[in-house]
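Title: [Solved] Peptide ABC transporter permease 3D structure

Original question kept below for reference.
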Amino acid sequence: MIAAMASRGSSVLSFARQQPLGAISLLLILIMFFAGVFAERVAPYHPEVIDFTSILQGPSSAHWAGTDAFGRDILTRIIYGARTALLISLVSSLLGCTLGAILGASSAYFGGRIDYAIQRVVDILLSFPLIVLALVVVAIMGRTLVFGIDIGLIAAITIPIIPQVARVIRSSALSIRRMSYVEAARVAGYSNTRVIFRHMAPNLVAPYLVLLSVYMSQAILLEASLSFLGLGVSEPTPAWGLMLAGSATEFFAQAPWMVIFPGLAISLAVFAFNLLGDSLRDWLDPRFRT
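Solution (posted by the thread starter after getting help):
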């Protein structure tokens, strides 16, 4: 166990030395996760408490990011909004990338009619832009709450990710399928499930991790966009896109901090995950190593 921990520690240090920008982005992501998980202890105020004596106050020592039209502390709502954004995007990207990877690997492994059928469905889904496909799913499913979680919103973010990941994983799995050890496993009579998950899947971990980090950023952006349009998270739940929806047009001239700080939070999160994905690709792919 100690040896495994030491090995993981050395891997992290190696990643930090070779990809310093990736290490910085990982640190930002960890800070966002920490703020979201421990929001009750980190945030200075309650996110839903209305204070009519502090309406539209600019940044100050009492409210570092100012207050909104209801006197709520914007920094507090950004911290709690990190929990909303990261929870929804993590669940959606994990589901989307995992289902897409399974479809892509299965399509490449079986080939023939199965590959043709899966790829035609993928082509149809890829013909829609991410936001358009998400809007279609939201319109079909509506708001479906299960244990307080909006399943319709998660599905609207998950489904557009699946075909994107399936296409990339399929291209990687096609080359792995021709490897001698995969052919040997098939000749030995191993089941298709064992060959896919035991012999092909480990070699697909690297592209999977890169895609997961990249589509985390896409999921955050999609969740913010849907909330901005009124189809995602609803009041009074703190959400970055929802914070922009109520202030982008009405209070931008009077209280620009209501737009600037949530916008910075979205931009920083998307930038961090995209940069981490690029760094992971360069670190995990031998072709990019010097």
